Amino acid sequence: MNKLCRQVSIESPGPTIKDCVFSFEVPVPDVPPDGARIRVVCAGACYRLRRSPSVSSLSSQSSVTSEYSQEICAHANIQSQSPAHHGVRDGALFPGYEVAGIVESLGTDVKENENIKEGDRVVLYPYEGVPHGYAEFIIVPDLQYLVKIPESIPLSIAAMLPTGALLAMNTVFSTHQHVENILKTKGENETCKILIVGTGGLALWALRIAAHNFSGLRDRVSITVASLKDEGFLLAQECARVNVVQWNEDLYEKQLIERTKDACSGEVDVVIDFGTTSRSLHRSLQCLSKGGVVFISSEVAEKLLPKFSRRAEERQQMIKPVDMGSIDQLKELVQLVAKKEIEPPPHTVFPAEEASEVIRRLCQSDIQGRAILRFQAVD
């Protein structure tokens, strides 16, 4: 096709948040023989992910790994250049690729009995080689990267699933075995204490998924959220049976650690830390018990592990990076949301033309929940 379509590319924001959103016209791509062309309806406001999950994760469950990425992602650059971006620190803005849309055309070699058909509502799993930007039309080389979306899920919600929700899901799932092991060492009336750091999109997903995942152990698992901002404090409080402690950066570090331990009734057993700074991880370790584990995104592991691995080892603690998650997990997540077993966090939809303003506000944590860019009005 020779027609043109609009594309929005979001790069990692620099110190002044300028020149990180680019909008231009690109040719509508031809349909790959074994793939499909997708008409993008909604996209999550994420910046470009420089490292994508490997194709091997498509059929196997992506899990916690002891090795961290050899190719540092945009997070590390942001932390060295622009630590003032609150939204990057609390997970309101993170790298990824979140697209929901409608199958516009199928390749010439696609068999008629394929599960994916023209007109299907789908999300795109962020495979290796995913496009660099959000265009009105994108292509996928193989249908295995597409996950169908039931009619019960609006595409604005579906767009939140492929990166933020999927990473949160894999992180919570990764904690499960450790939680079970901890409970075996405790008395019948003792609990396993989990601390979730952040109240951006990642942490809000993790909070909801953890509440569902540990529902069978609800009397033996306690969850506390460390909120980095006032609005996040209110959002976290909406969830029942969850403690909330506010990490006010104006307080001394010792005060924040004591405040957190008080809220958790002592040191915690597990920390899910979606913060991206050394200070956040240091604080998490100080609140963690001997033998405890901190789970962090593999996207920030290369920067933080060299600084803290020895310290954690001395305290007999572990820091475990978590990858994005597999396509099988994404399919499971879609079904859980469709059945309303997991309630999505709040989100706000903005026209794609406002991407620059949206990213500016996300950097300041000025948008509650997730921000979604709408390219076309369909559902």
Automatic annotation (TrEMBL):
SMART domains: PKS_ER. Keywords: Metal-binding, Oxidoreductase, Zinc. It comes from the Eukaryota. Residues 15-373 form the Enoyl reductase (ER) domain. This is Enoyl reductase (ER) domain-containing protein. Gene3D superfamilies: Medium-chain alcohol dehydrogenases, catalytic domain, NAD(P)-binding Rossmann-like Domain. InterPro entries: ER, GroES-like_sf, NAD(P)-bd_dom_sf, Zn_alcohol_dh. One of its GO terms (molecular function) is metal ion binding.
